[in-house]
Amino acid sequence: MKKHSTLERLDLGREIRILALGLIGSLIMAINIKSFVHTGGLYPGGFNGVTLLIQTSFQRFLGISLPFSPISLALNAIPAIFSFRAIGKRFTLNTALIIVATSVFTDIVPAMPITQDILLISVFGGLINGAAISLCLIGGTSTGGTDFIAVYFLEKKNRDVWNFILMGNATVLVLAGLLFGWDKALYSIIFQFTSTQMIHLLYQEHNKITLFIVTELPYEIYQEIMVTVHHSATEISATGMYSQEPKTMLYCVVSSTEAKIVTRKILEADPKALINVIKTEMFRGRFHQTRHY
């Protein structure tokens, strides 16, 4: 009963963390839209960009002012259904809440122009946009739209597709350029590129780290790895050249976000262990992706 209550507290704490980071990210994104994106007339890519493009088109050509929320929610409906089936119910429901929160925040947050310099808007708006998306992803949810695609490929195919999404967003920007002028479209590309690089910097789940662990307690360390991150390891017999004593070397690949946790657990199990941490440029094969959602 005590173990069961502990697990319930952990699940509750994780859910609170997911929602807290997601809501903070959605609020930051809404403020960014009202302070940078609208001021510069930019299109941030993804479904938010498509929503703004539709709003601008109706306002410019038909004189009709449309609210952000209904358009955004309608566009996100199809990828949300796909995510529900392919990624998971919890992740999709949490993301749906973030989509709704972002839409509502965008409608109620007042316009707050900070600068009129279009280059500053493109660079800093992109940085803030990438930080908001990363905050949601780190927490275990997303901002919806193309994020569904990125998370699907990360979990199911173990591939980072953010640069491909950037190229897909270029289609929206080309359409915006044809309709409203190329200057804003080109500045939007700067915004998108900066946002993508910020995501690469902050969200490291797709990066892999190789651990080489020399120890005299291989089973204890293996147990810590399995319990902590659910990864297996390969045991290699070794000999200490100076002492000529038998050793064991464990080979293990984890994500970069797991590496610090694993190394700490390893040293707790064997304070004398030697750990070599190597960045892995390419990895192919079966890899357990820890689910945060």
From TrEMBL:
InterPro entries: DUF2179 (IPR019264), N-reg_PII/ATP_PRibTrfase_C (IPR015867), UPF0750_membrane (IPR051461), YitT (IPR003740). The keyword Nucleotidyltransferase does not apply. Residues 231-285 form the DUF2179 domain. It holds the Pfam family DUF2179. It is found in: Cell membrane. GO terms for cellular component: plasma membrane. The keyword Transmembrane applies. It comes from the Bacteria. Keywords: Cell membrane, Membrane, Transmembrane, Transmembrane helix. Gene3D superfamilies: 3.30.70.120. It is a multi-pass membrane protein. The chain crosses the membrane at residues 20-41, 61-84, 91-112, 118-140, 161-180. This is YitT family protein.
